[in-house]
Amino acid sequence: MKKTQEELENAINSSPLFSIDHVNNGELFAKEEERLLADLVKLMSSRRDFDKIGFEIICTAKSCVNCVKSKSYKPEKGKFLNFFNVSLQQNIRWDKGKQEIADIRKGIKISKKMDLVIRNLSRYAKMHNVKDADSDEFAVKASNALAVPIEEVREAIAINKYINVDSGNRAISGDGDSRSELFDFVEDKSSTTEEKIEETEDLIHKIRQDIKSIDAKFKKEHEGRQPLLAKLLTVDLLTDLKELRILDDVAIVDRVFSGISFINHEIYANYVGNGVILTYREIAKIHDKFESSVNRTRSRFKEKGFDEHLEK
């Protein structure tokens, strides 16, 4: 009898595989591994893009089972499907960005540590609408905010600027340049599944730090301005998550949203249903305001938030 989606999910998350010693009971482990992989493929086959990412699904599934074998996956820390989905999204995201970042970098190699600094600087500049990310003033402020030595920040800015100028693209920018987010990708695809999970956890942690700071300022706003501001902030956050290629990962989005008061869940539901993020113009119509007035409201909050954040 064919299993339902729910039955497949339960079978995967409660698989006996997680408690079997593959060294002392290799035959049983292999049998349960085969069953788990078969259930995973059946579950994933319902995806509309299965034909395009079937290979990535198989490779990710095998990699995750190896984590079970090596004991690096621990069931008590979360469901196996969550572990698998994070790994899959990382692999898909990696493959899509690999060629784009290769085009920008033109073979220039960057260490993982420097890549992380560049990535965080890019997000920091974008989050706070920085206009001059090449300035020493920005380097000092970013160094303090991100707890990165000023020498490393200056080096990251210089490397990023050189690569982008050489390739005809723009460097670290705070004005919505999605190209800057491509530095999420490292050319040397040597990371293990565990490392990719750690990278995702680090990214979620950084995002949560930023939006918690924004949420604290949002709570201090006059109640009359909060409904409009909440929609605008939600649109900003959804746009950032989309550019980071994690907006369609429900598990990650739920974690990012958790405990944040300004999230407007209707706007997120609209994206889930239609695949489109509302614009400031559409929000202005909802509140019967001019778009310019809505833009000013957001700009004032953003400038105020940036200044306060840097003074800490």
Describe this protein's structure:
The chain contains 13 helices and no strands. The chain folds into three domains: 5-98; 109-184, no CATH class; 193-311, no CATH class. Helix content is 68%, strand content 0%. Helix 6 crosses helix 7 (150-167) and helix 12 (280-286) crosses helix 13. By secondary structure, it is an all-alpha fold.
Q: What is the β-strand count?
A: 0
* Helical content (DSSP H or I, runs of 4+): 55-70%
Helix/strand/pairing class, anyone? mainly alpha
What is the averaged pLDDT score? 77
Please outline the major beta sheet: none
Number of structural units classed as domains: 3
Count of individual helical segments: 13
> What percentage of amino acids are in beta strands?
under 5%
Question: Topology, pairings included?
Answer:
Elements lengths: L4 H9 L12 H19 L5 H20 L10 H26 L6 H16 L8 H11 L3 H18 L25 H28 L5 H18 L6 H8 L7 H10 L5 H7 L4 H21 L1
Helix pairs in contact: 1-2, 2-3, 3-4, 4-8, 5-7, 6-7, 12-13
